[in-house]
Target: Methane oxygenase PmoA
Amino acid sequence: MAQEGFKPRKIAFITVKAGEFERNKTPLSCIIDGVTLNEEETLILNELNGSKRTEIPVQIESRNPLKVWWILDRKLNPNQMQTFELAVGRETVAFREVLIDKDDKAIRLKVFNRKVLQYNYATIPAPEGQSELYARGGFIHPVWAPDGEVLTAIQPKDHFHHLGIWNPWTLAEFEGRTVDFWNLKDGKGTVKFAGFDSLTIGTVYGGFKALQKHIDLKAPEGEKTAINEQFKIRVFNIGEAESGPWLWEINSTMQCASESPVLLKEYRYGGLGYRATQKWNTANSEILTSEGKKREDSDGTRGKWCLISGPTEKARAGMLFVGHPGNYNAPEPMRVWPPDANGGKENVFFNFCPVKDRDWLLEPHKSYTLKYRVMVFEGKPDTVKAEQIWQDFANPPEVMVRVL
Model:
């Protein structure tokens, strides 16, 4: 609560222009040039509507320069504007936070104290009776629907190396060797968790930055890291307590780990993959891309987004995967299992695969980032909402700042 006698100090007005598209529940950010905060100072953000002022959550990403995030928590029609007032002060409203639970094996991110996703940083053992090469950490599972249903699967019997949501590369050239970080049983490569850069909780988003090492297991001197990756997850504080949806972001930033380049070779799969719950199959699930392609004709096509849905114990739920136009080879080609994959059972698999039709050279001293958003929803897939999520990501509203 605000302390008695403390008067907020206004520092900026922020105006958001919707542009050509409708906006709603849109994550927004901006830098306030020329303003820095000390570690003790906090912010208040008010939404202005005529004489009405509504305090809303605001979160500081950095203090110098000052970068802030908030959620546009109302509908803006195309070309409509909304103004906000930013002040140094103490919140007068106790807003809910995106929270993190951490133990010695995994971290879980929560909205409304309901589980959204789990990142497994500890190595999980190989399935019983299988090669120890299948042991791995550094992946997301479970992903929970708003109704609590788990929408991911790991180590299915048909593909023991499938791990919920994960992002290895299948065919790479490194120092004259061919490395496969995806098919673990081959023993050529793997991916290992190497520590957290940060854990964040807040009223606008919560998440983490993890370091993952893509390792060549056949280097002459023993294991050698080919790629250092910062794997960043950010869960936004949107949705309704009982129905969601949940919205989160995946950023993968890769750098060569040595003076040796890494060539990611053209291959039919590799990169961000999703293995769905084993309850879903050809008969009871749906796949639809931004270009109107379905399960039977989407493999190898390009798309801005892909909707995947199926039944749950309570009703129906699904996931929307959205690619950023700044990604390599965007709009990215997709790998989608066809209807007859796995005999038509337990066979929902999706992959944004930027190397599906071309190589990608990673050079030393350069960074390469892939960005995705994911919406987890209840009910039937909504193509209008999917397109809005993509527009928010690809063509965000214009944000104008007037520093006072």
Q: What stands out?
A: The chain has a mean pLDDT of 96. The chain has two domains: 9-95, 99-394.
